[in-house]
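Table S2 (text version). Query chain:
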Amino acid sequence: MDKWLMNNNAAKVIALVLGILLFAVVHKDDSTAVTTPPLMESRWIDSVQVRTIGLDTQQQVIKSMKPETVRIQVRGKRTTIAAALPEDYKVTLDLTGYGTGRHVVPLHHEFPQGIELVSMLPSSVTVDLEDVQTKEFEVRVKTEGIAAAGYKAGTPIVSPSNRVHVTLPASRMAEVKSVTAMVNIGKANESVMLKRVKLTAYNSKGQEIQDAVMTPSVVEVEIPITKPFKSVPLQVNLTGQLPDGLAVSTLTPDVNQITLYGPQEALDQFEFFDGVQVDLRQIKAEGVYKLNVRLTPPSNIEKIEPSEITVDLQISSVKQRVISGVPIILTGENDRLETTVAEPATRKMDVTVVGAPSLVDELKAGDIQLIANVNDLPPGKHTVNLQVNLPRFVRRADNIPLTVTIIIQDHSTPVTTEPDTKPTPPTGGDAGNSEGSQSETGQEEHKPAVQEDAGTSTETNDTSPDLNSENDQSS
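Corresponding structure-token output:
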């Protein structure tokens, strides 16, 4: 027995048996069950964004899509699901081939390898597609801030073009009221140039339209910053006299307006610029002349552009002509008085004019004004000088004043009770009686007759070439 116990193998067997018995005694009352973790599991993932593919955004846009997110249940190895990120779960809406209108489209999914879809809620979405529209707008440049003292912002220059194309759903295109580029010119004393200025579309309330697509989206803007300036029409004046027998036929400057630079209060005084003088004394014969004229800035004006102009002047021989039947116009009439033209009774006159043949030949009675100013004249008989207004470069053949005889009568003057008989002449000569009688009996009918005479005179002048020809020859 002792020999067996001293055997090494026997001792090992006994130790093993004792170990097993000891383990059984220690864990005899342990109620915790030891289980092996499972290899697969499933999980619900909420608010997975639906992504769209296959949509030609140049032709269509999504007007509405419901729902925009879905809930999915996936299954896979525990370690695989734990390692997957939310963005790894892709749910897509393929809109390839779908046209304008409302459609119910099934959803597709793409998950990491080893993860499969158990369920998707919902499995399809309702999408409403709408055509897009592109419209051209003008770019408006708005400035922020104020240029340096004494400087003024000029007209903005937009490159490569001041036109931009705006793309929006057709139903929203009417919202666009302007496309604007904002430029800050605060305290600038030289031109402001920006290479990339963002364009923004605004609605009628001045609110930005966020999803408007603009082509191009940025432009280059230059804003000139200069001293205050003003562009005004140019008027060329003639000085001196041409030799006898010559007249100005045409006068044409190479520019029609000039630009003045200076303080704003000085510029505000100019509505036109008449500081250009052409001296006719340097002309000796008929022909076409090109005259260079330097422009001198007026007082308080720093600069004038251009500083020199060219005037084309055509000189020709004069022609004399009698213009028949020019109507006489009354101005300054008093509503409480009756004013009539006693002499000439036709209320028309002939006017002899001279000028270049190209101007005189085209002249009509309606191109000449004979104005009698009766303002502040008391009742009675008056001789009034006529103001003669002629087209430019045409003048009267003589300087003898043209006069008319005017009769002014108070409306309160009693008239005859028998309008069909000749009224009793007032005290005065026969001529005065006759004139007074005409004004009394023709008070209401005389003024319309004047308008008719004026129109008839113009027509007669145009349709009576023989008379005009005789006048020309007699002249």
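Notes on Table S2: The chain has a mean pLDDT of 82. The longest strand covers residues 124-144.
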